[in-house]
């Protein structure tokens, strides 16, 4: 069975992706940072769909932890054929650039940019036909903030997602001849826990009025697109970024 690693799969978009992937025939590695109970609940749903599930705690900002996770996947599930770089760190609270500290910015970049690169490297080493692999797919989870910039909110996070967009284009070209497709989804406002970290209690309600569809999206609406991009049905799609933002 094909094996997918989803980073940040205990909650939100990652959890929905893991469940939809299982329904579409994937065995799934459910990575998480600290919420083991939620990861176990996702794993139970994957198994209920008849697929194998592996739970892997690893901070995507920690290179050694990432390498360990990929080795455990090799041993327990077999060679990975899809990676979803979904885990991300927003930083805490809303902030302006004139308040930012370098260490806090680096923490955001470390998880979102370096983490995406290191996870992709480990996946490429296993998927690439140049390394004896059979090809595969990488799907990055960017954000509409890469186009909007998130002023007065979390511009460092938005900048990290701009980097994810650039990585999607560059990596797609770099590994196309290795049998690996690389794409991204760029969600707009999606109803998940992530918004609690802004410190604006009613952020979802306030932002909805700027969205042409006048509603937030669901994690499942993003997960469906991720699983499609990872699947053979998207076999000629690479270097694409799919906006999932209700027309925003
Ligand atoms: P969420 O509901 O807050 O879930 C975040 C997930 O990532 C959790 O499973 C969390 O694990 C995990 N995680 C966080 N930091 C991690 C780290 N350093 N290492 C490993 N796992 C980590 O977030 P979400 O809204 O689903 O966001 C998922 C992705 O969508 C992110 O890339 C985000 O930037 C992007 N996005 C979201 C929105 C939106 O409106 N929700 C919009 C645009 C883009 P624990 O459960 O263990 O904490």
UniProtKB/TrEMBL annotation:
GO biological process: fatty acid elongation
A molecular function GO annotation: glucose 1-dehydrogenase [NAD(P)+] activity
Family annotation (PROSITE patterns): ADH_SHORT
Transmembrane region(s): none
Catalytic EC class: oxidoreductase
InterPro entries xrefs: NAD(P)-bd_dom_sf, Sc_DH/Rdtase_CS, SDR_fam
EC number, as in UniProt: 1.1.1.47
Source taxon at top rank: Bacteria
Pfam families per UniProt: adh_short_C2
Record key words, sorted: Oxidoreductase
Family membership noted in the UniProt record: Belongs to the short-chain dehydrogenases/reductases (SDR) family.
Protein name according to UniProt: Sugar dehydrogenase
Organism: Ramlibacter tataouinensis
